[in-house]
Amino acid sequence: MGLESCMVVVNPSRTPHLVKRLLGLLERHGAARVVVTRDREHFIREIGDFTGSPFRNLIVWGGDGSAHEALNTLVNSGCTDRNVGFLRGGSGNGIQDSYEVPFPIARQVSAFAESATADYRIAVDLLAIDDGSGDRPVYGQLCGLGFDVRVLERRDRHRSRRTGAARPGLANYVRSGLGLVLFEPLSDGRTYRLDLGRGKFALRGKRTNAEFPFQRLSLDARPVMIEMGTRPYYGGLFKVCPDVVCNDGFLDLYLFNFENKLDVLRNAVSLWNGWHPRINSRFARRSKPLIERFEIRRVSLSSPEPFLWHVDGEVRLCGLREDGMARLDVSVLPEALSFLVPPGFWRKFHPYDDLRPGFAES
Fold first, then answer.
1. Domain spanning 6-120+341-349: CATH superfamily
2. pLDDT higher than 60, residue 179
3. Taking the model in full, what pTM does it have?
């Protein structure tokens, strides 16, 4: 059982102290080809080279930024007949959290060796995002506006004195979030026009669920934060989109309608753990706005002024289009890529395959 079918691309920038151990583990498990990249351009070039290689599986060692680059390179190259998996090589590791990659490095490599041998793969959905600035969409699994973008901006201002680069890590993210809550306005006061297509309003309460299907729905909203995803986690096990299913053909959109800072601080633990029904139950008792959730195929978010947004933690600017509006068009790309996933995660989607041989083929 090994990695003979795998090409491994390593981005050592965030965790260089672990790379030596990683290389030893990969050699022990028989990885067919291992490349330690020098910079972003080298990393993207190696991902592109994989698409023309004889290897069936690509394994990436890196954080959310590396995962984002790999996903976009693979989709743009039309590489849909291979598998990609992600080891924990960053400080956030939101994509690894979402697909239940183990934490110890030896267990990670062993898990992917088993998955490569048994062909444990799942076709997953991606977001296709168009802000009008390029010829083709940007692909990712999380996209947001509002409070989280402001936190990311604040985080990126804290830079290492030695390298000048933004400091990674959960501690810097939490510090930036607390600083924003304590010392700046909670909301920027911006109103967005949301045009949603083909889906349903899907509220999960503590005791009662509510659904409202629609073909088209338009509304004006001024939430503290808007988040869209096809995976549940930011880095550090922050479960921002808790109800996401990675391959159901829908994106989940959440409107976080907090009114004041005290509400955020009171519900901070519940927010981090994705306990939205618990928050909604408290808010309903106090006649306050809820966290709203939509399962949809697509959405357009527009504003008469440019606004910042993020994809997988990378902050971008949505500028004005020819019609004088800034607009972000987000749609779901069903089963866009095949992910090589750890055995435990794969079995959640195939609960009967091991118990009843041949069931999946019948």
1. Probable inorganic polyphosphate/atp-NAD kinase; domain 1 (3.40.50.10330)
2. yes
3. 0.90
